[in-house]
Each structure stands twice: as C-alpha cells, then as structure tokens.
Amino acid sequence: LRGGGCMALGILARRLGAAAWLLACVALLAGCAAPTPPRGSVHEGSVAFGTRVVPLPPGPWTVLSDEERRGQMADGPALTIRSIMLVQEKDGRATGIIRATVPDAYAQGVQYLPGRIAGCLNDGSNLRPAVVDVGQRHFDCRRIVMWARAAVAGPALPDDWKVLLDRQAANPAFLPEAAPAVIYSLADGTGQFHVEVIFNPENRGLLRDTRNWSQNSWNTGNRTPQHLAYIARLADWAEAAHPAMRTGLAGRTPPPLPPF
Question: Which residues contact 193 (CB under 8 A, 6 or more apart)?
C-alpha cells in the first residue's frame, strides 16, 4: 500500500478513534505512517507512531497529549512535525514521562554531519558525555540532561507540554520539580526520531527540592551521593535501552525496555 492506500487507512483510523490501533500494525507493514494514537489510549511494550515505534518501559502508559506543527528537525526543509506525550502514573503522580517526535515525511538521502547537529554536542548541559555516532546517512545520539518543570513554562510552550502542565496546575505534586532526562536523537535516510524519557526521582527515593537553582540538590555543586547514584543508574538504563530505540527508528517492534 502506498499513496491512496495509505490515505485510506489514515481516514479509517481517524473514524475509528481509540480502535485505530487495530490498524496500526497493518499500516506499518504496508509501509504507511501509523495514525497518531488517540489521547487517553493505553499502551504497553511499545506504541506505533508515524513510521516509527516508540519502545516503552514496563507497565501501562497513557497518551496524555499530542501536537502537530510546522518546523524543522535539525537538517532539512520545513515539514510537518508530530509529537505525542505519554505518562505513567501512580498515587496521583507522574512516575514517568515520554515525549516522542517524528516528521510526517522526510527527503530521502539527507546527509547528517557532526557540525550540523548542535543539540548533541558535549557541552555543559550534559550530565554524562553524549554518545554520538554520525555517518553520511545516519545519526545516533544519546545524552542525559537536567529537566526542570519551570523551564518548560512560557508563551512559546508546545501544546503537548501545555496539557502536561495543566495536570500539574490541578495537582501540584503531579510533576517533579526537576529530574535528569534521557534524550535520544536518531536518524536515517528516511527521517528522524526524537525521544525524551523522564523518570520521576521523587517516586524513587529522592526528596522534592523546591529551592532555587543555586541551592537546589540537582545543581552540579550540590549533588549528594544519592543524586549522583541516581544519575549513574539512569545512565546505565539509557545505555541498555538504546538498542530498542534504534529498532523503533527502523519501524520494527522493539524488544521490551528494562525497568527503572
């Protein structure tokens, strides 16, 4: 199936709503982009999105929000970019957040050069040295950076983040104040696949710290042995999960992600 066949699958999926995921595997096997998973749908193991498959850590993950916008992903022309936000919850808190971003279409044969991917340079924002593999037809980057709830607020906030912060406004304990985030940026000749993974450290033994950044426990100069151990543990998890992300880039069903 190509062209009109893919379009027909997309129209049918939109009409089916939550049942659209009965067509997701058919769409992928046919070489079509899977429809955006509907808000409120629950997924385990993985979720098909566009021509990629997002691997998930163990347990149920709920699609909280989605967004479609015009823009660019590193190299290449302007195109339609789609994002989804998935959350895992326990006792009124988000224990995990995953945001996946894919372009709807991408020019074939795009070259990926190290100097043109500024987001994966080893600068001061990385908690661990970035792991980067770049060739003329592929790009593979894994990095760990600090995420802060206050940093994602503002008038230019993407729609999918706005929905997440609305949940926070209704329940101030829903999101962590700050947390290390794993970012995978992957690409091949057919397009790019960007996945952000945040686990809530406040559900994993670390106390909530609302102090300003200069005094905060996550600040480089203030990290306790517990905070350093958390970052090291996350780095190990990120390395173990990386092959599954590569499988998802290829549009194949990835193996289960390890628990964290």
Answer: 52, 100, 101, 102, 184, 185, 186, 187, 245, 248, 249
Exposed e or buried b per residue across 43-69, where buried means at least 16 C-beta atoms within 10 angstroms of its C-beta: bebbbbbbbbbbbbbeeebebbbbbee
- Asked if pLDDT for residue 187 goes beyond 90, the answer is no
List, for residues 23-44, the tens digit of each pLDDT value: 444 444 445 667 788 999 999 9
Answer whether 0.85 is exceeded by the pTM. Answer: no
Cβ contact 157:170 at 8 Å = no
Query: What gap in Å lies between CA 52 and CA 165, rounded to an integer?
Result: 26
Q: Are 39 and 85 in contact (CB under 8 A)?
A: no
Query: In terms of Cα–Cα distance, which of 120, 64, 96 is closest to 197?
Result: 96
* Half-sphere exposure for 83 (CA within 13 Å, toward CB): 21
Question: CA–CA separation, 74 vs 119, rounded Å?
Answer: 9
Query: Side-chain half-sphere of 68: how many Cα atoms within 13 Å?
Result: 8
pLDDT at 58: 97
R_g (Cα) of the chain, nearest Å = 18
Closest residue by Cα to residue 93 from 208, 205, 202: 202
- Crossing angle (nearest 10°) for helices 4-16 and 21-29: 170
pLDDT digits (tens, 9 = 90+) for 110-156: 555 544 455 676 666 788 888 888 777 778 889 999 998 877 766 66
Beta bridge partners of 141: 132, 185
